[in-house]
Amino acid sequence: MNDSKHKVLEIIRSSVEVFRKISPIQYKIRCPLCGDSDKDLKDAHMYLKCSFDPTEPILYNCFKCNAGGRVNKYFLKKLNISLDQIPDIDNQIFNKIPSMKRVDIDIVTGTPVLESEQTRYITGRLGKGFNVDDYDRFKIVWDMNTIIPYITDIRIRNTLPNNWNSISFLSDDKSTLLTRFFDGSPRWKKTKLFPSENKSFYTIKTTLDLFTRDPIVVNIAEGVFDILSVYKNFNGRDTSLHISTLGSDYESGVNYAISSGFMGSNVTLKVYVDRDIDEKKLRQEMKKYKWWFNNVYIYKNMIQEDFGVPIDKIKKIEYQV
Q1: Under 8 Å between Cβ of 320 and 279
Q2: Strands 216-221, 202-203: pairing kind
Q3: Within the chain, where are the H helices?
Q4: CB-CB contact of 18 with 32 (8 Å)
């Protein structure tokens, strides 16, 4: 654990009456915002998450008042902790300090083309039912020429895939191009457009209110087409977050959602796994996250290997964590 985070955690431990370790990265205290339980002063409903990632802040979430966020000056004041003990809390300890310059630009990917090889391929993989707004949310690069001005590396510019025999998606941080070839080998290719220290995820564009008390569903799957299928076939699109981990590290997707602020008693976590995944082992691994969500579910498709197929080839089986 980062020394600065450990210091903050120890100060909190010494300043509160109830401090229980729930897991290697989770702790429970009484909520300083709502006052917690009146009947039992030893009862506690606020969870702290202090991960081993030195760049991730300590997060809090109360399952009584639904307050959640980042441990900062405001939160420590509520615990009557003197900020003189931690003078740099908002400057260093809990903010990411990238070793590379973060690329934060609005890459133009072109206008969705409903009659194109790309849309025909998605229709063939997942079935009909997508509209122009859906395709706009998928961060598909419709015209490779539109992203060339953003790439300074000549080698990368000269080796970009074309749109004749493939479909390409942008990763969440826009640093990586994820290309699926229609035929031939390799099936997938990842092209690093910009240097980035972040793990690559693929997400479907959405706008959600972090402070709403309405139900929100966080959907996590392994592949791009798995999460597109989940978006098309399950849950309300306007109240859901869709994350592809681009691999079988499902926990990274959960941590990504939590660090983005999607946690609490109104948030349900749904993980869609490939059929070869050891479901029992994953359920054990996911237990440490159940305190951060209203419910946690794991799903498998019992007909095909994954969920990246039409709905008539999906027979969903549910496991609750």
Answers
A1: no
A2: unpaired
A3: 3-15, 73-78, 117-126, 132-137, 154-158, 224-233, 250-259, 279-286
A4: no
- What is the token pair recorded at 301? 């498709």
- pTM for the structure as a whole: 0.73
Prior bond of 54 cis (ω within 30°):
no
Tens-binned pLDDT, residue by residue, of the chain (321 aa): 456 778 888 899 999 999 998 877 888 999 998 899 888 888 898 888 887 766 678 888 888 887 788 888 888 889 988 777 665 555 444 433 333 333 334 566 778 888 899 999 999 999 999 999 999 999 999 988 888 877 878 888 888 988 889 999 999 888 899 999 998 778 999 998 887 777 889 999 988 776 677 899 999 999 999 999 999 999 777 789 999 999 999 999 998 898 888 888 889 999 999 999 999 999 999 998 988 899 999 999 999 999 999 999 999 999 999
Q: Where are the domains of the chain?
A: 3-93, 117-189, 202-320
Which of 303, 251, 309, 306 is closest to 277 using CA atoms? 306
Could you tell me if 228 and 308 are in contact, meaning their C-beta atoms sit under 8 angstroms apart? yes
Give ∠ CA 229-233-238 in degrees, rounded to 5.
100
CA 138/CA 148 separation, integer angstroms: 19
- CATH class of the structural domain 202-320: alpha beta
Q: Give the DSSP letter string of 96-140.
A: ---SSPPP----------SSSHHHHHHHHHH-S---HHHHHHTTB
Q: Which residue has the tokens 């240097």?
A: 195
